[in-house]
DNA sequence: ATGCCTCAGCTCCTGAGA
């Protein structure tokens, strides 16, 4: 089976591209981030016609996440239990024998800012909750827009961007702490092209120049790791007209 | 260069994204 994650930067604008991508890439599960719409505006009918069940957790203007699945989504949980948050950033569900968590991590704006402090608190909240979630659901996948690079390999200009947002040691420490719960970066389980990124700034022809960051990730639990057969970033949708600034990341799993 | 795009909205500018 295949699962994917994609920050689509407004579902209102990107719905046709999501449907086109699903038609060409009929994944079993797709996690979406940055819907930028409320639940009452979510296009359930369009996804039903495309053959997908959907669970959404929307919000006006900002944030908003959803899960699409070929098979029913059950035990849906919105946001991080135990972490009080007024932003719609996390949605979890059972899909077959998997626990799927889709997440839109805070941006953080700038080290030292209030938004950076919120990002750190959110990461701690996520980790505290995931510890018990992993214990309850050994076969777990956590995918989404993490807004953090693992290391300089994920950064087009590690010197120029040293200690800037997405690249600070504090953020990377938090990411390693998530890994330490018993998770693996599916992308690095395989040989990958050099300078592989999942996000490119809209400005300055950044995509054409491949000036990007790898900030969209799929982490798999220990129990799931042996089932992973492939993981790749699909740059094709970034070449569309009016693209999202992010590209989808896709993982392939053997059946249990 | 507090810029460069893109999107939402209390929409002809501003805040936020990353």
Overall form: globular
Read across the widest sheet, the strand sequence of neighbours is 3-4-2-1-14-13
Total strands: 14
Helix amount: 10-25%
> Largest sheet at a glance?
6 strands, mixed
Which regions have little confidence, pLDDT < 50, spanning 5+ residues? Answer: none
Give the amount of beta strand, in percent: 25-35%
* C-alpha end-to-end distance: 10 Å
Give the averaged pLDDT, no decimals. Answer: 97
From the alpha carbons, calculate the radius of gyration and give it in angstroms.
Answer: 17 Å
Number of helix segments? 4
Oligomeric state of this protein? single chain
Helix/strand order, N-terminal first: EHEHEEEEEHEHEEEEEE
Broad structural category: alpha+beta
How would you sum up this structure, described in words?
- The chain is an alpha+beta fold and 256 residues long.
- It has 4 helices and 14 strands.
- The protein has helices at 11-24, 44-49, 114-136, 169-179, and strands at residues 2-7, 29-33, 53-57, 65-69, 74-78, 90-95, 98-104, 140-145, 183-185, 199-200, 212-213, 216-221, 228-233, 249-253.
- It has a 6-stranded mixed beta sheet with strand order 3-4-2-1-14-13.
- Helix 3 links the parallel strand 7 and strand 8.
- The longest helix has 23 residues, at 114-136.
- The chain is globular and about 45 Å long.
- The N and C termini lie close together (10 Å).
- The structure holds one DNA strand of 18 nucleotides.
């Amino acid at each position: 089976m295949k699962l994917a994650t994609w920050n689509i930067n407004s579902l209102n604008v990107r719905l046709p591209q999501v449907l086109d991508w699903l038609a060409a890439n009929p994944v079993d599960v797709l996690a979406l981030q940055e819907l930028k719409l409320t639940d009452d505006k979510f296009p359930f009918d369009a996804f039903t016609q495309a053959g997908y069940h959907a669970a959404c957790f929307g919000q006006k203007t900002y944030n908003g996440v959803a899960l699409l699945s070929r098979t029913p989504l059950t035990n849906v949980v919105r946001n991080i239990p135990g972490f009080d948050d007024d932003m719609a950033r996390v949605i979890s569900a059972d899909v077959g024998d998997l626990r799927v968590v889709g997440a839109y991590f805070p941006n953080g704006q700038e080290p030292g800012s209030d938004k950076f402090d919120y990002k750190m608190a959110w990461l701690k909240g996520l980790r505290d909750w995931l510890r018990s979630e992993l214990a309850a659901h050994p076969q777990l996948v956590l995918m989404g827009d993490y807004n953090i690079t693992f290391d300089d390999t994920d950064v087009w200009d590690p010197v120029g961007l040293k200690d800037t947002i997405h690249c600070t040691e504090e953020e990377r420490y938090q990411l390693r702490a998530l890994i330490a719960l018993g998770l693996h970066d599916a992308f690095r389980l395989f040989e990958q092209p050099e300078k592989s990124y999942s996000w490119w700034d809209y400005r300055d022809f950044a995509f054409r120049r491949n000036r990007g960051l790898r900030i969209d990730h799929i982490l798999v639990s220990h129990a799931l790791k042996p089932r992973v057969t492939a993981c790749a970033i699909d740059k094709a949708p970034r070449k569309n007209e009016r693209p999202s600034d992010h590209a989808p990341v896709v993982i392939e799993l053997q059946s249990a």
